[in-house]
Structure formats: structure tokens, C-alpha cells
């Protein structure tokens, strides 16, 4: 998510031609877009990072539900 925000900020700064970004080539920004695309479409699923995030969310919900049920039974 941080990389997506970085690309958006770089694109805006290049578009409005702010400071040192005037001389930055559009190819750097396009390259970052391509890298992010490959990261989210191929690398992250290959490493299982997308499923790990989902599993962690379900695990947190399960633990919260267990805590709630034990408080209700006391």
C-alpha cells in the first residue's frame, strides 16, 4: 500500500512539475507501476502473502470471539 501511495505522489509531483521531479523521466513512474502490478499479481500470491493476511484476520476474529464467549459464561 505504501508503494501505491508513493507512485501516486510521484505521478502528481511529476505532472505539476514540482522541484527536482521536473527532470524525472516518466519511464521511472511507468516502471514502478509495472513493478507494483507484477508484485500484486504474481509475486505476492506466489509467496502466499495474500493468504497470510486473510488467515491473520480470521485468526484475530476467532480469538476475539473466544474472549467474548468466555466473558459471557462467567
Topology readout:
Elements: H1 2-15, H2 26-47, H3 49-73
Helix pairs in contact: 1-2
Brief account:
The chain is mainly alpha-helical and 74 residues long. It is 82% helix and 0% strand.
Question: What are the key terms here?
Answer:
mainly alpha, single chain
- Global geometry: elongated
Largest sheet: none
Radius of gyration using CA atoms only:
21 Å
Strand content: under 5%
Number of helical segments? Answer: 3
Helix content: over 70%
Note the run of SSEs as H and E.
HHH
Task: For the record, give the distance between the C-alpha atoms at the N and C termini, rounded to a whole number.
Answer: 42 Å
User: What is the tally of beta strands?
Assistant: 0
Poorly predicted regions are none
Oligomer: single chain
- Number of structurally distinct domains: 1
Query: Mean pLDDT score, rounded?
Result: 86
Q: What structural class do helix, strand and pairing data support?
A: mainly alpha
Structure overview:
The chain is mostly helical and 74 residues long. The protein has one domain (2-73). It contains 3 helices and no strands. The chain has helices at residues 2-15, 26-47, 49-73. Helix 1 (2-15) packs antiparallel against helix 2 (26-47). The longest helix has 25 residues, at 49-73.
